Known about the structure:
Elements: H1 2-8, H2 39-51, E1 65-68, E2 77-80, E3 84-85, H3 94-109, E4 113-115, H4 123-133, E5 141-146, H5 153-167, E6 172-177, H6 216-231, E7 235-241, H7 245-252, E8 260-264, H8 272-280, E9 284-288, H9 302-311, H10 315-325, E10 329-330, H11 337-344, H12 353-360, H13 371-374
Parallel strand pairs: 3-4, 4-5, 5-6, 6-7, 7-8, 8-9, 9-10
Antiparallel strand pairs: 1-2
Helix pairs in contact: 3-4, 4-5, 5-6, 9-10
Amino acid sequence: FIFTRLRQRGYKHLILFRMCATAENSRGSTCPNRCTMGRLGSVLVLLAMLSKPESGNCGFPAIPKLKLWTPPGLPEVYMPQSALGTCFGFNPPHNTTDAYNATLMYLQSGGRAMHTAWMYCNQQAVGQAIRDSGVPRVDLFVMSMIPQWHLGYEETYANFNDTLRQLGLDYVDLYMFHWPGLFAKNIPMLYPDHPETCGVPVMQMPKCKLSAWGWKPCRLDTWKAMTELQRAGKIRALGVSNFEKDQLMELINTGNRPAVNQIEYHIGYHDDYLVEFSNNYSIVSQAYHPLDGGNLAGPKYPDVVTIAQNHNVTAAQIALRFIAQRGLAAVPKAGTQQYQHENADVFDFNLTDAEMVLLGGMANPNGRSVSDGMGMMCVDETRGNMARCYYLD
């Protein structure tokens, strides 16, 4: 009975009065195991293990959950610390077929959290994969985002309802801003033939932008609509992405703070000042692009490979463990079962203090991979360097 319950709950340490289980510890094994608990430890934690929330099944790693901030009176929300990223480009058919195949594979393997966005033009594919998987909705954690050209009160309601329609769901677990505003180099994205508009004509400038106050009215109007949708039970938790300190404070001052700020974060670039600020307000930082475009095993990060060999894991797992050990969540993209498994299998070992310092020292202030290349970065004015700010505020 005990071993059955442990397997059902996804535990890899099937230990009872012995040092280790015999499951193979290698890439692609059904139930990988690391020997971390002895006889006495297994006795002491047995009841706690049996009582912990379910987090997948045998063959897929158990993933911790982070409690998200919600307004008083609303249900508590817990988000898995690792989720599947589904952005496989913006051009069909890859953005839809790859997203469908990856999501279905992830769910059938035991994964339960996934991140998509209206801008990815793949929400219908993700929703179809959810239905085809047969996994009960209550077991899932589904995230989506409103694009920057749909900001505004009425626009937010329209975009959110379209998101529910595309996903085929009655609610989403986390709904976020994709960006805090438009950028000088984003203007081409506003035309219907641009892939990130998903073929839908959009206004050149949202109505809420017709103000001398820049994008702040748009953000506040969107936040008002999102707050109402949360109160109505359509959204369980609210979040943002690519927000800086001042933009976070705008929303915090409304009385309903964001639960999550999704930011680019990896060993080659991490804004620890922003993460610390977010922590002070119980805002979870969630890392996108956490593997730096797959550059981890190359000459750019030679020490990562060495550390990975010391722990008998992959370079990607070291990068994700670094993020997790700093308390962040992550949404790594993976199109194969092996990589999906490895990306989630980072919660049963620890990096040493020296390794954390070494990895933390690899960051480059100019190392943003996603945003800098698209002209989308705006530095917090309290830290200067506003010449890099592309917002049309």
